[in-house]
Amino acid sequence: MPTNTLFQYSGIAALRKALAERHTSATELAQDALANLKAQAHLNAFLHVDDDLTLAQARAADARIAAGSATALTGIPIAHKDNFVTQGWRTTAASRMLADYVSPFDATVVQKLGQAGAVSLGKLNCDEFGMGSYSENSAFGPVRNPWDTDAVPGGSSGGSAAAVAAGLAAATTATDTGGSVRQPSALCGVSGIKPTYGTVSRFGIIAYGSSLDQAGIIARSAGDLMEVLDTISGFDPRDATSLETCDGAPNAPGRIRADYAAAAQSFDAAGAKPLLGLRIGVPREFFDAGLDAEVAHAIETALQTLESLGAVRVDISLPLTRLSIPAYYVIAPAEASSNLSRYDGVRYGHRAAQYGDLESMTGRSRAEGFGVEVKRRIIVGTYVLSHGYYDAYYLQAQRVRRMIANDFRKALSESCDIILGPVAPHTAKRIGEDRDDPTAAWLSDIYTLGVSLAGLPAMSIPCGFSNAGKPLPIGMQLIGNYFNEGRLLAVADRFQQHTDWHQRKPGQY
């Protein structure tokens, strides 16, 4: 196996320094990364790689560095989840429906990272159309967890998390509809953040649940997340859900970095107790009988670390936590049913080879193009939107959604500054373990769904490992108030300055 160059550097800042001081070049980093991802093809993290496209971007990055016009991300190897449309690379959303689709334009997130000089290594595997918790639902085979290749990496952004964990990319784009950034980050032992809904453009992201989908980032550390998230955030007039301002401040690059720096400065000024006075809300509903004992122990140990840094633990309640599952699995499938109706075999996407009339062409094309989980959610979504059931299911779910958001708002405004808990009830399961019980995977999202329904920012950072069998990562979830991404990342960074969980690498536990 080729040398994993990315593992030789502590993160994006170290890579940037090495590039600036000519210890390496963007082209050399790209070549090493391409060789390494091919050597680890068994992980099935990548769906499309094009060496020529990647090396062309790397050479352009080297030219920018030589000219003195480099940005914070120039020359940094990244990769994109396969539901971000891209020019040159195929965009399939891990579905047979879009198996050969190449977009004529880039998603806004892809465009911004390209303009910053980041070097794309290709497209990453995921659950089909983002529908899944384990990255097993891809039409092109499951992604494998680098810590244990018989285990799932989490979903739907499993390829994004696996690529970072295996050292195949310095950072990756991802999307989070109900936990799809946070859960794979937790199960793969890396860091990931979902920002406040509307702060990052959704233009060019293949839609699943439009009121829930949000672009996010996965990387090794909170500091790396800040570097990339700050670059991609900002108002986009092409996205109807994009926000112009964030609590009075312009939604633009620099906002998150400034908030992060301000929080870090205040932590530095506090000396040996950098988090002095920080109120951490611990929801009692997150620590019920369904939480694995090893996960609970790791979260408790992490809490004690934060308390040693000056933070104060506050017991809080989020009483509607259990209702987040039925509310989400009514709203998200309903929106998916609407969004996926465009794949009819007429305009683009898969078309059946044999059919009689227009109706049979559409039916056959959709039956052949969509996988089982996607069909399941389309059927559920169509049902809850149908006449006679809309009020009973969809409208009621939206009411519950508002009540869940209000619970979070009340806690964050009256009781605590951030909320802390587990990401998933368990460590990574075996591939295929829940195949006969599809709703079991839905239940694993219980700690992440409420945040997505409320549109709040949240992140996962590594905080421990299981002890039985092969060590598997455990992630801790941090939830902030609206637009508090910078402070949330600064708290995570302070935790990572005093722990080394995020520095552990597969095979080097």
UniProtKB/TrEMBL annotation:
It holds the Pfam family Amidase. The active site is at 81 (charge relay system), 156 (charge relay system), 180 (acyl-ester intermediate). GO terms for molecular function: ATP binding; glutaminyl-tRNA synthase (glutamine-hydrolyzing) activity; transferase activity. One of its GO terms (cellular component) is glutamyl-tRNA(Gln) amidotransferase complex. Heterotrimer of A, B and C subunits. Allows the formation of correctly charged Gln-tRNA(Gln) through the transamidation of misacylated Glu-tRNA(Gln) in organisms which lack glutaminyl-tRNA synthetase. The reaction takes place in the presence of glutamine and ATP through an activated gamma-phospho-Glu-tRNA(Gln). This is Glutamyl-tRNA(Gln) amidotransferase subunit A. It comes from Paracandidimonas soli.
